Amino acid sequence: MSSSQRNTSIAVPFSKFLVHHEDNPRPEKLLFRHPFVVFFHLPYVVLLGFMYLGLSQKTTGQTIYFATAVGLYLSSAAYHAWRPNSALRIVDQIMISAYVLSTSLPFLYQKPLAIPAFFVCLTLIGLYKCREQESDWKRGAWIFFWLGAVSAFLLVTFGFPIIGASLFSATGFWLLVVIACFIGKLIIYRYEIKWIPKFWEAPESGHFILSIGVTIYSSLVIIYPV
Questions:
Q1: Which of 93, 115, 123, 160 sits a CA distance of 20 to 30 A from 197?
Q2: 3-class SS of residue 67
Q3: How far apart are CA 166 and CA 157, in angstroms?
Q4: What angle do CA 70, 72, 78 make, to 5 degrees?
Q5: Rounded to 5, what percent of the chain is helix, strand, coil?
Q6: Are 151 and 103 in contact, with CB atoms under 8 Å apart?
Q7: Distance from C-alpha of 144 to C-alpha of 186, rounded to nearest angstrom
Q8: How many CB atoms lie within 10 A of CB 205?
Q9: How confident is the model at residue 117 (pLDDT cuts 50, 70, 90)?
Q10: Nearest Cα to Cα of residue 75 among 207, 190, 208, 179
Q11: pLDDT exceeds 70 at position 56
Q12: Among the residues of 82-201, which ranges form H helices?
């Protein structure tokens, strides 16, 4: 057998693990709906765990933030591995909301109403998501956007003074980069931007740019323990 034939015999079966399997995902054979998303998310959960256990001060705010980040990536991995049903979708949507809401907590958790407000808002979002239909995804995207806007406002207005930063500081610059990444994910999903059909489409592009934002922001959370 020639080298080209051997390479083809290896590459063709291997490619089956990387192509989208929208109609018949079978996780037991690693044939996920969106393989690149799943193959990335699970190691990323380990990275987030290392950042929390090895690098953070484990404050209450940091604990809630990293717990929601890990939950977000686990729920997203499940959503992109199996054929989505209502339960997977609801859990994934709630975890997205929880992560967005938690972003200001590492800096504001000592405020008397911060943590109760977080859980009250998350409960209300959860109740809404349980009733939201998949066809309402545009409304859901706007909800994520406004949750992010509120979290960013709280962080800049009340959190930055605590750590001695401002929107025009280096920390402020990186926050703007993070916000751009989060908005970029919404844009990619809204317009279903595709690079390589069936291999690297909106889910892969969206989560790639999201991971950049999460990594940068998680680093800020660790650098500035409150």
A1: 93
A2: helix
A3: 9
A4: 105
A5: 75, 0, 20
A6: yes
A7: 9
A8: 21
A9: very high
A10: 207
A11: yes
A12: 86-102, 105-108, 114-131, 137-154, 160-163, 170-191
